[in-house]
Each structure stands twice: as C-alpha cells, then as structure tokens.
Design a protein that fits this description.
alpha/beta, Alpha-Beta Plaits, 4-stranded antiparallel beta sheet, about 10% strand, Multidrug efflux transporter AcrB transmembrane fold, 8 strands, 11 helices
Length: about 350
C-alpha cells in the first residue's frame, strides 16, 4: 500500500501521470459557483447567528444532568419575556439560556430561578452580560482584522510573485473559503463568536499557505515558458498542481485529524463550547481551503494568464506545432500531455523537436 502511494506520488511529480485539473477548470468553477450559491442562500435565508460578544445581551449556563430545555425556556419567558429568551443544550451536561440585555437584579432572579428549577446550586449557574456598545466594538474590531489581513496578503503576494493575477486568484480563493465556511455556520445554526473569528483567520492563513506553495511551483515551472515551444502555460501550471497534489493531501489529512478530534470529542462529547466554535471553523475551512488551493486558485490564475496577448499567442504557436507534428510530446489516452516524457538531459525549456509520440 505504502509502495503504491509512493509510486503514485513519484509518477505525479515526474509528470508521467497527470490529472487534467487545469484543463477541466470550467468544471471546478461550476462546483465552486454551486458552493457559493449554497452559502449565500443559507446566509440570506437563515442569516448569521452572532454571539452575545457581538450583539450584547445576557447568557446563562446551567450545569445539570437534565436535558430538558423547556424548563430554562419557561424561566426566561417568565422573567424576561421582552428579551427574546432562547434555551438550547450545550454538550451533554449544560443548558444555555440566551436573551437580550437585562437588569442586574433580573439576572440574579433568573440565576436563582434556574438553580431552583434544575435543583442545582447557584454556583452551577454561570451568567454573562455584555452591553451592546461593547458588542458593537468587538464586531468592528473583528471586521477590521479581516480587512487588514486581506489587504496585507494582497500586497505581499503581489510583491513576492510579481504578478497581480496570482494575488487576485489567491484572494478570490480566500474569499471562497470564508464565504463557504460562514454559509455552513448559517445553514446549521452555529453562533459566530470571537473564537469563530479566530478560526476564520486561521483557516485563511492555512489556505493561503497551501496556495502559495502551489503558486511557487507554478512560477518555477513557467519562468521560461515563452522560450520553449513544447508546452503551453496551462500545461506547465497543471504539472505544478500535480507535483504538489500529494503534499497538499498529506498536509490536509494530518491537519484535519486533530481538528476532527477536537470537534467531535472535545465539543460534542465533552461539551466545550469554545472548542466547538473554533474547531468547526477549522475543520470546514481546512477542507475547503485545500480544495480551493488546488481547484480554484491555480485554474483561475491560468484563466487570467491565458488572456494575456503573449501567453495566448504562445499557446496558439505550441498547439499549431503540435498539430503539424513538429513538436515532440507524449499524449496519453485521455488526451493529456505527459510532461514527464522528457529525455535524459532535457528540461522544460528545451526547444521544439521534430517528432510527436503517442503513449499506448
């Protein structure tokens, strides 16, 4: 099994085996468009449930063996009917009662009533109150942090790759990940808390790292693309994707395993609310971030680059030479060019050769 995986990875890196990811970019764009439509639809239909850290309000957590949320709901309706109380379970041993801001005296009465209703000590009822001004300030700072992150990423990627198309493609991939993750939060009804925002920024960094690794390989493969007539820009970019495919999969699996443990054991079993907030964002974001770095960022960058006049003319020239039989390439049964068919001593900048081969 390990030997087969190693052989597969070696074949991808050498170009002997190629998946036509870039050539099938319209398919990935349609899939991403569907994901974005689902996410935006969820946001419009269900909306985003912001935690009290952003909206302000009161929250009561009752540590109890009971799972009957109706008791807490009745207490909330009795003491603060105008504050829109909502009782939910949190893990296996806690009941959460959320509502708008209430007076301190009312909060004490609710705490005592919940303790009596669930037959627990008042020390087992934790209450939190956040004013609307503080909540608005937290939301403002979170939005500022996101905007600053995206601006800095755009500048750094543009300077590093010296290509605005790579920077634009990377930012679009990041927004793709963010919108999808927030849409899933809206779809399943999870609250967005400061811990969630930390998770969002973390996954953007993770997705960016994966995208930069792929782009770096794309830049390496295509730096002399115009000096040779054997391969198009898209084919060399596709080679870069295939060469980094195994690395991306391995990195994602290794990263997702501990996050999955935190999400499914730490939050749902142990009932740690903060763990749930951040681990859900990490789990969804890392998975979709890996997808976007492979199937969105690079195909989109190729789509933008092929619109350049010099790249478009070079692509036409390569395809014309290939049709006339003046370019030596190896084409598989699927019609994909095998870049790894270079002869010993040859490199990607080798000029056109007078022969074309087909792999049987």
């Amino acid at each position: 099994m390990a030997g087969n995986l190693a052989q597969w990875g070696n074949a991808l890196h050498s170009g002997e085996k190629i998946y036509p990811i870039v050539r099938q970019r319209k398919r990935w764009f349609v899939i991403s468009g569907a994901l974005m439509a689902l996410s935006i639809g969820s946001l419009l239909i269900f909306g985003v449930q912001l935690g009290i850290d952003f909206t302000g309000g009161s929250q009561f957590l009752v540590t109890t063996d009971s799972e009957d949320v109706s008791i807490a709901q009745e207490v909330g309706d009795e003491y603060a009917p105008d504050s829109e109380p909502l009782a939910t379970t949190l893990g296996a041993d806690r009941i959460k009662l959320s509502m708008g801001e209430v007076e301190i005296e009312t909060a004490r009465e609710i705490t005592a009533a919940l303790a009596e209703a669930y037959d627990v000590d008042e020390a087992d009822v934790a209450s939190t109150q956040i004013g609307p001004t503080w909540g608005a300030e937290v939301g403002k700072k979170a939005l500022q942090g996101l905007v600053v992150f995206l601006v800095l990423v755009s500048i750094v990627m543009t300077l590093y790759f010296r290509a605005w198309r790579m920077a634009a493609s990377g930012i679009i991939a990041l927004l793709h990940d963010l919108v999808f993750t927030v849409g899933i939060y809206a779809l399943i009804g999870f609250e967005i808390t400061p811990a969630s925002v930390i998770g969002f920024l973390t996954i953007l960094g993770y997705s960016l790292y994966d995208t930069v690794v792929v782009f770096d390989k794309v830049r390496e493969n295509t730096k002399d693309v115009l000096t040779q007539n054997r391969f198009t820009y898209g084919e060399l970019a596709n080679l870069a994707l295939n060469q980094t495919l195994v690395r991306s999969i391995n990195t994602s699996v290794v990263a997702l395993l501990p996050v999955a443990s935190i999400l499914f054991i730490g939050s749902f079993v142990l009932g740690a609310g903060t763990l749930k907030d951040i681990s859900l964002a990490l789990f969804i974001g890392m998975a979709v971030g890996t997808y976007s770095s492979l199937f969105v960022a690079t195909p989109l960058e190729v789509q933008l680059r092929t619109r350049e006049e010099k790249i478009a003319k070079h692509t036409e020239k390569v395809l014309a030479l290939r049709e006339s039989g003046e370019a030596q390439v190896v084409v598989g049964d699927d019609g994909e060019v095998r870049v790894g068919a270079l002869q010993p001593g040859e490199h990607l900048g080798t000029s056109a050769q007078p022969k074309r081969k087909h792999r049987k």
